[in-house]
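Customer escalation, tier 2.

The customer says the design service returned an amino acid string that "doesn't look like it belongs to this structure." They asked us to rerun it and document both sides in this ticket. The original structure tokens are below, unchanged.
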């Protein structure tokens, strides 16, 4: 199955901002995040198809994942 991952802010450093993964059935968000080399603790917002996602959620064909790090400023 194919899923699309969109990376934002510092997660784009050294990576493409949009990546498509070909995964086996039953893979989870945690599997994709590990493959990207991102620590779970670094993720402030995790969305799947525009909705709040959980690390253990199984993925399905066509899912779009968005990952945001904490952003500071003012």
């Amino acid at each position: 199955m194919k899923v699309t991952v969109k990376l934002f802010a510092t997660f784009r450093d050294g990576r493409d901002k949009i990546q498509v993964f070909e995964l086996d059935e039953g893979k989870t968000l945690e599997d994709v995040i590990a493959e990207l080399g991102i620590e779970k603790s670094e993720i402030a917002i995790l969305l799947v198809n525009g909705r709040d996602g959980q690390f253990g959620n199984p993925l399905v064909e066509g899912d779009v994942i968005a990952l945001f790090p904490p952003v500071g400023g003012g």
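Tier 2 assessment: The sequence is consistent with the input. The helical segments are 29-36. The chain has one domain: 2-68. Sent an explanation to the customer and offered a walkthrough call.
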